[in-house]
Sequence to fold (210 residues):
Amino acid sequence: MPPSTTRPAAEDPRPLTGEPLSLDLLNTRWIDADGPHDLLGTLEGLAVWLRSAGLADQSAADRPTLDALLHTRDALLALVDDQPTTEAASALNDVLAHGSVHHRLGPDGPETHPRAEPPHWLPAWLAAADYLTLLDTAPQRVKGCANPRCVLHYYDTTKNGGRRWCSMAVCGNRAKAASHYARARPRPAPRSAPRAGSAGEEPGAPGTGS
Ligand SMILES: [Zn+2]
Fold:
């Protein structure tokens, strides 16, 4: 196979992707066995995030865009887990003041075009505006993972709104295992005397003709 002329795009390393944009921005931070990670710790990571968010062709992976996103992520973090304070709300409103939606009638019908001023605020503004949409739709479905050591957030789209974990496979199973061990009681040793015979043999196994 001939070598590719373009370098393959770095893959998104995050454990949880595909959440609405505001929560997806929060989920650029995560903690795993290696410790805390931050996809927005570098411009390369920002480029990965912009691609994942479908914003790579609208925004440059540059320092101003990154700073706007970090600022907005802090504002969202201050709102999402606690009772929102006036300061937290005004921090988000400062972000929202950087953009607006422009409506126009296009050849195929009505069009909406988000705009930001300066333009590097666009991804941050979109994330902030997305959070308002979630609050408008179902604020109780904006959740943090129930694992206290996990910092991921998600929008609960289950029918009964009973999702508790970022991932059943990771945090859910860990919690299930923890509660299983907590419930488990030491079992009394079996009453029947251990059979004489070769160790490790299944009791009641057909004799192997010693
Ligand atoms: Zn989790």
About this structure: Residues 63-80 form the longest helix (18 residues). Residues 193-210 have pLDDT under 50 and may be disordered. The pocket of zinc ion is lined by residues 145, 147, 150, 152, 165-166, 171 (CB under 6 Å). The chain has six helices and six strands.
